[in-house]
Amino acid sequence: MIRIFDQTYMLGDPVVIAAIAGGGLVFIILALLILSLRAASRSARMAEPLARQLLALGQNVQQLGLGQAQLQGGLQSASDTQANAQVQVIQVVEARLSDLKTQMNDRLADNAARSTRALAEMQERMKDTLHGTSRATATSLTQLQERLAVIDKAQDNITKLSSDVLGLQDILSNKQTRGAFGEIQLNDIVTKALPRDSYEMQSTLSNGKRADCLIHLPNPPGPIVIDSKFPLEAYEALRNANSELEMKEAARAFRASVKVHIKAISERYIIEGETADGALMFLPSEAVYAELHANFPEVVREGFAARVWIVSPTTCMATLNTMRAILKDARMREQAGAIRKELALLHKDVERLVDRVGNLDRHFGQAAKDIADIKISADKAGMRALRLDSFDFAEIAPEDGDDPVALGPKTG
Fold it and tell me: Rounded to 5 degrees, what angle do the CA atoms 123, 124, 129 make?
């Protein structure tokens, strides 16, 4: 770095290099000039050429000085230009740095605002998510509690059902309680299917036998008995048989048990002249009924021959519905006379109504004629009043059947 006239120049600057080269050249010329002057005394004969050369060299040196001055002026101008350029560059850089700083500040502020909004939105979403999760969790817990309550209730029902099943097993294990169970079930079916006055439970017949249910059907067929039988022991032995021998023995016992019930019903509850010529044996179990009809058809046919029809709860309901239709038809026939009497009275009432309507129609016709006559009289009275109002007596002509009113005394 070189400092000239309060100006600082870098050693690598081309202007500085050119100035150094010129200075070196001047120094060499001056050295040569000194050497030439020293050699002038030794080279007298060469003075003139040397003088000419020196003169030319002086001119060259003078031109070189001028060039150096020009170079110094150019260096000064270049230095000023460079200083101005540096100032402009610094100003431009500062302006750009300021703009860049402003832009950076704006972007940082914008990014900060966006980050704040994003954070707020994220917090809001997290809040909503947490609230939704809380609500969903609360709902799930509520539903879980409700389901647990339902499960507890179902468990209670299962426990109660288990106790009921055990109780039912206890009931069915005893022959008397099993018979009472069948009677209760029969009573429930009959009560739902028939009117209360059409049957009698535990009815005693003329032979002293008591029937579980006596249905009062009209003749024919007449009152019919339904008796409940439940061959459960023979059926369970049939279901629990493990060998062919046990199966045959259980089938024989089941067949015999049902035949005994059929015979008892046929002998006790079919009384000629008192009951119908048949009776119903009620089996309280659909399974026993299905087993009987599926594997023991000969027993069913034997019941038909003895005029004992075997029914289950389902078929008993269908049979009772048919009986209800028969009872309804019989009651309709019983009431046929009363219905015909009521129809005759209704016919007379209709005839009187027709006569009275005719009389009313005649009255309406007479009233319409009277109203028409009144309208004609009113029109005539209106016309007379109009003529009297205009005093146009000369134009008043007597009408047919009308006598004009005299305004003065009559003359001959």
Answer: 95
Q: What is the pLDDT of residues 201-210, one digit of tens each?
A: 888 888 888 8
Q: Is 245 helix (H, G, I), strand (E, B) or coil?
A: helix
Q: Render pLDDT for 227-238 as a digit per residue (tens, 0 to 9).
A: 888 777 778 888
Instruction: Name the residue among 228, 226, 231 with its Cα closest to residue 288.
Output: 231
Q: Which residues partner with 309 through β-bridges?
A: 280
CB atoms within 10 A of CB 229: 23
Q: What angle do CA 21, 23, 28 make, to 5 degrees?
A: 95
Residue 308, H or E segment = strand 308-311
Residues in a beta bridge with 279: 225, 308
Q: In which residue are the tokens 């305004």 written?
A: 407
Residues with Cβ within 8 Å of 328's Cβ and at least 6 positions away in sequence, in order, are none
Instruction: Name the CA dihedral angle for 125, 126, 128, 131, rounded to a multiple of 10 degrees.
Output: 170
Pairing of strands 279-282, 224-228: parallel
At residue 171, does pLDDT exceed 50?
Answer: no
Task: Render 229-244 in DSSP notation, one character per residue.
Answer: ---HHHHHHHHT--SH
DSSP state letter for 205 = -
pLDDT in tens, 238-288: 888 888 888 888 888 888 888 999 999 988 888 888 888 899 999 888 888
Packing angle, helices 244-269 and 286-295, rounded to 10: 110
Least confident range from 164-168, 376-380, 387-391: namely 164-168
Q: Which of 329, 236, 243, 322 shows the shortest CA–CA distance to 285?
A: 236
Residue by residue, what is the 3-state secondary structure of 363-375?
Answer: HHHHHHHHHHHHH
List Cβ<8 Å contacts ≥24 apart for 250-254: 251/295, 251/296, 254/291, 254/296
Contacts of residue 221, defined as CB under 8 A and 6 or more positions apart, other chains included, come to: 276, 277, 278
Residue 215 backbone dihedrals phi, psi, to 5 degrees: -100, 125
Residue 383, amino acid: M
Q: Taking the model in full, what pTM does it have?
A: 0.41
- Burial (CB < 10 A; 0-12, 13-18, 19+), residue 247, is middle
